[in-house]
Amino acid sequence: MFLVSDKVIVVGGGLAGLSAAARLAYNGCKVTLLEKAPKLGGRAISIPMKGFNFNFGAHAIYARDKSILRKYEHEIGLKVDWKDFSPSKAFYDMGTFTTPMPATLEGLYRTKVLDSQNKWRFAYEVFKTMSSLERGEPGVLIGDYLQKETPQVRDLLLTIASSNFFTNEPEKIPSPLFFQYYKRLFATQRAVSYIGGGWQAIVDSFAEIIEKNGSKIITKEKVTKIELDGNRITAVYGKEEKYEADYIIFCIPPKELCQLFADTPFAKYFEEYSHYVPTQVVVYDVGLSERISSPFTYIYQKAQRVFITDISYYDITCVPDGGQLMQAVAYLNEQEIAEGKADEKVATIESVYDKHFPGWRERLVAKRISKKATVQEIKCIEDQRLMPVKFYSLPNAYFAGDWCEGDGQLSELSFSSAYNVTSHILEHAVPAEGMKKATSA
Ligand SMILES: Cc1cc2nc3c(=O)[nH]c(=O)nc-3n(C[C@H](O)[C@H](O)[C@H](O)COP(=O)(O)OP(=O)(O)OC[C@H]3O[C@@H](n4cnc5c(N)ncnc54)[C@H](O)[C@@H]3O)c2cc1C
Predict the structure, then answer these.
(1) Which atom of ligand 1 has the smallest separation from the CA of 373?
(2) Does the Cβ of 31 fall within 6 Å of ligand 1?
(3) Residues 94-116, mean pLDDT to the nearest whole number
(4) Cβ–ligand 1 contact at 255 (below 6 Å)
(5) C-alpha 154 to ligand 1 mean position (Å)
(6) HEC sequence for 126-171
(7) Main-chain dihedrals φ then ψ at residue 55, nearest 5 degrees
(8) How far is the CA of 226 from the centre of ligand 1 (A)?
C-alpha cells in the first residue's frame, strides 16, 4: 500500500509512457517522465515539412468505440478529434479489377472478392466470430485453422488480417489471437478512425494533462542505470541526475531493458523478448500541391500487399490549402528484410501511386520515405509472445509498450498495457489526505 502522492518514475515518453504518466498524474501521483529524445512521442511523431504534417504511421485507431483511448478520453479528459474512416471509399485492387472492400453490409453486397454463395459463408463466419462460436485452437495458426473454409473466404479473412496486423504473413497469426481480435473489431460501429492533428495532437494532450496536474516531463534525459535494494528498484540515473521513486514504469523496448538491467540478476527476464522479430514496413508519404480526384480514400493492392491512405481526406489540418497528403505502406517479412528488399518495395509503391493517382509526380511538393519503420516491437506470429507487464521478482517495477501484453495490436497495446499497469498501481494506492480514491479499470 502506498499514498497516491508517492513518487512514480516513468521511463520513456512514447504513447505508452505518456498515457501511463497522464493517468497517474491525473489521479494524484507525483510523476516524473524521463524521455531520451528532445521530443515526446517516440514512434508516434508528426513531422512538419513544406507546409505538410507527415505522421509517422497512419495513426489509425481500430474499433474506436471499444478502444482504450476512449477510456482515457472519458476518465482523464484526453482530447481526441476523431475522424471516422469512410468504408464506402475503401477498395481492393485485385490486379485485373478494383472492387469495394467488404467492410460493411453494403460493401459485402457490392464486392467482387466473393461470389454470392461465399458472401453468405463470410457473413456466417463474421457472426460466429462475434458470438464466440469461433475461437480458434491453441497451438494452431490461423492459416491452418482456416483450411476448413472455402478458398475465397479463407483468402479474404487473411487479407483483412494482413492489413490490421500490418503483416504479409497473416497465416502465421495464432488462431485464438485472430478470433479474439476480430470478435471486437467485427462488433464495432467504427472499424477505423484517424486522429485530427495526427499523433501530435494526442501527444500534446497527454503532456498537458501531466503538467497541469503538477507532474514533470524531462526530455533529453536518457536513463542509463538503475539502483537496486534487493529486488526493489530505488532509483534510476539520467545523465547527471539520480531520480528516486517508489514505483517505476519502464516504457522502453526489451532491447533497451536488457542494457539497463545488464549488470543485475534480472536481465534474463528481458532477453527472450529482445530477440523476437518486430513488425516492420516501408512507409512512403507524399504531399501534393493539389488534390487528385479519386473514388478511393483507401486502396489495398492485394498482390504486393501495399496500401495507400488519403490522410488529408480525413484530416485537412495536415495539408496547406488545396493540398493532398497520402501515405503508402508496404509490408516486409523477415526474409525480405534480410535480403534488403526495401528498395524494391519503394518502386512497387510508386507504381501503385501511378496506377491509382496518376499525376502525383507532377504535383509532388514533399515526400518522406522510411525503409524500415517498426510498427510493433514484437510481431504477434507463431510462438512469439508479448512481454508481461509485471514480473513477480521485481515488485515495484512495471512495463508497458507495444511489446507488452494488452488488448488489440499496434498502439492499442501501448495504451492498454499502460492502462493495466496504472490500474494496478492505483488499485493498491491509499488516497492522500483530501484526495478522492483513484478510479480503476
Ligand atoms: C509506420 C508506422 C505506422 C503505424 N501505424 C499505426 C496505426 O495506424 N495505428 C496504430 O495504432 N499504431 C500505428 N503504429 C504503431 C504506433 O506508432 C506504436 O505502436 C506506438 O507509437 C508505440 O509506442 P510505445 O510508447 O509503446 O513505444 P515507443 O514509441 O517506442 O516509445 C519508447 C520511448 O522510450 C524512449 N526511450 C528509449 N530508451 C530510453 C531510455 N533509456 N531513457 C529514456 N527514454 C528512452 C524512446 O525515445 C521512445 O520515446 C505505427 C507505427 C509506425 C512506425
Answers:
(1) 53
(2) no
(3) 90
(4) no
(5) 32
(6) HHHHHCCCCCCCCCCEHHHHHHHCCHHHHHHHHHHHHHHCCCCCHH
(7) -95, 145
(8) 22
- 264 and 387 in a single domain? The answer is yes
Q: Are residues 226 and 267 in the same domain?
A: yes
Query: Cβ(380)–Cβ(276) under 8 Å?
Result: no
137 domain-assigned: yes
Residue 265 belongs to a domain: yes
Out of 43, 62, 311, mutate this one to test ligand 1's pocket (max ligand atoms within 8 Å of CB): namely: 43
Closest residue by Cα to atom 11, ligand 1, is 411
Question: Does the C-beta of 177 come closer than 6 Å to ligand 1?
Answer: no
The mean predicted confidence, pLDDT, of the chain is 92
In the reported structure, the alpha carbon of residue 294 is separated from the centroid of ligand 1 by a whole-number distance in angstroms of: 32
> Which of the listed residues 189, 223, 251 is the one where a domain comes to its end?
189
**pTM attached to this predicted model:** 0.94
Question: Is residue 222 a contact partner of residue 36, using CB atoms and an 8 Å limit?
Answer: yes
Task: Return d(Cα 329, Cα 338) in angstroms, integer.
Answer: 19
* Closest listed residue to residue 287, CA positions, set 216, 366, 342: 366
The answer to whether the CB of 36 is under 6 A from ligand 1 is yes
C-alpha 64/C-alpha 86 separation (Å) is 14
Express each pLDDT in 227-242 by its tens digit.
999 999 999 999 999 9
pLDDT at residue 429 tops 80: no
- Among 189, 206, 229, the domain boundary falls at 189
d(CA 188, CA 205): 25
Whether residues 265 and 400 fall in one domain: yes
Query: Which has the closest alpha carbon to 380: 282, 277, 281, 280?
Result: 277
Q: Which domain, by its residues, includes 144?
A: 101-189
Confidence of residue 368 (pLDDT cuts 50, 70, 90): very high
From residue 69, alpha-carbon distances to 15, 98, 407, 415 in Å are 11, 34, 12, 7
- Does residue 307 line the site of ligand 1, with CB under 6 A? no
37 ligand 1 Cβ < 6 A: yes
Please work out whether the CB of residue 206 comes within 6 Å of at least one atom of ligand 1: no
Average pLDDT over residues 336-360: 93
In this predicted structure, what is the pLDDT of residue 1? 37
| Ligand 1 atom closest to residue 414's alpha carbon, by position in its atom list | 26
Ligand 1 within 6 A of 226 CB? no
Asked if 320 and 407 sit in the same domain, the reply is: no
Residues 201 and 262 placed together within one structural domain of the fold: yes
